[in-house]
Amino acid sequence: MHATAPVPRGTRVSAPRVVVAGGHSAGHIEPAMNLADALRRLDPTAEITALGTVRGLDTTLVPARGYPLELIPPVPLPRNLNLALLQTPGKLRDSVRAAGTVLDRVRAEAVVGFGGYVAAPAYLAAHRRGLPIVVHEANAQPGVANRLAARLTTHVFTATPAVRLAHATAIGIPLRPAITGLDRSALRAAARRRFGLHPDGPVLLVTGGSQGARAINVAVSGAAPALRAAGVQVLHITGPQHEVEAPAGDPPYVVLRYVDEMQYAYAAADFVICRSGAMTCAELTSVGLPAAYVPLPLRGGEQRHNAEPIVAAGGGLLVDNADLDPAWVLSSLLPVLTDPARIAAMSAAASAAGAPDADAVLARHVLGLIADRRRDAR
């Protein structure tokens, strides 16, 4: 890894200028913003610009984190690196030109891409200018933009060693300090009060991600009477498009459509049932929460690959979406929820599979590349 070069006292050094490209989905944008925050922590003068498009969540998530956003035309790429990639030359050319204009205007010294619609144009524009390219792949199955970029640079980082990408070094996924620094035990009592849960007794956190997951909602709500009879509390985050009726009684079954600060939900919980997106897997292992992972049955089941290393390490369970129903919750999940020793063992295994310092590792590497490039230019 590169380390930021020391600066002699009295030397005036301009701020490092970094462009991050990870637009469209939260799974691409959040790691990019978490890296930006880490760059600022290591060098408060750092100038970070985000590339995005109007098609996704860029215009919502990036400004909320306080970083300037430059929009370029979106270029959805085929899932496979084949001739189809060459069948959209006009759109790709326009987007590369727009990305290059941004790189020139902000005088970028490095481009860090996380995949998605804006990454490929940013990589190609940076390559034409001889700028350092850094790639981060969060998913177990790399997208076409990052597979393309891995042919243009040796600075490639992945979430896990299982990711097959040229020149890859596994570091985890950049996460927010609110997650990586979470002490669940210390925050547990306050978090449970926040959601109206009892201070003692097992808590199952149910979440399908930002949009929710109907299969998870139906399975757990259908098992609510048996969960309650076993003394299991439930914190159920349904997502905005799904309705679940909170059954009255004790212990509590709390239903919320959305939780903004997930560290409180994680602190309140003992176990989670959820999808297995890359960010979800990274956050849960970082905080040491075991989970029953229900991969989204799309795109060839790629989410399954995110969860498999965690499950193999003993930090979770894996259930196909088609097999998830109230009966599975009762037969396979309930015995775990009522076994504190097993939860503790799974929590330790989940924590061992985590990588809480990926943001700092990646930020140090980027700053080191810029320092090396400046030194070589003298």
TrEMBL record:
Enzyme class: transferase
Keyword Glycosyltransferase part of the UniProt annotation: yes
GO cellular component, one term: plasma membrane
Reactions mediated catalytically: di-trans,octa-cis-undecaprenyl diphospho-N-acetyl-alpha-D-muramoyl-L-alanyl-D-glutamyl-meso-2,6-diaminopimeloyl-D-alanyl-D-alanine + UDP-N-acetyl-alpha-D-glucosamine = di-trans,octa-cis-undecaprenyl diphospho-[N-acetyl-alpha-D-glucosaminyl-(1->4)]-N-acetyl-alpha-D-muramoyl-L-alanyl-D-glutamyl-meso-2,6-diaminopimeloyl-D-alanyl-D-alanine + UDP + H(+)
One of the GO biological process terms: peptidoglycan biosynthetic process
Keywords recorded for this protein, A-Z: Cell cycle, Cell division, Cell membrane, Cell shape, Cell wall biogenesis/degradation, Glycosyltransferase, Membrane, Peptidoglycan synthesis, Transferase
Protein localization: Cell membrane
Membrane topology note: Peripheral membrane protein
Pathway note: Cell wall biogenesis; peptidoglycan biosynthesis
Family: Belongs to the glycosyltransferase 28 family. MurG subfamily.
Identification of the protein by name: UDP-N-acetylglucosamine--N-acetylmuramyl-(pentapeptide) pyrophosphoryl-undecaprenol N-acetylglucosamine transferase
Organism: Actinocatenispora comari
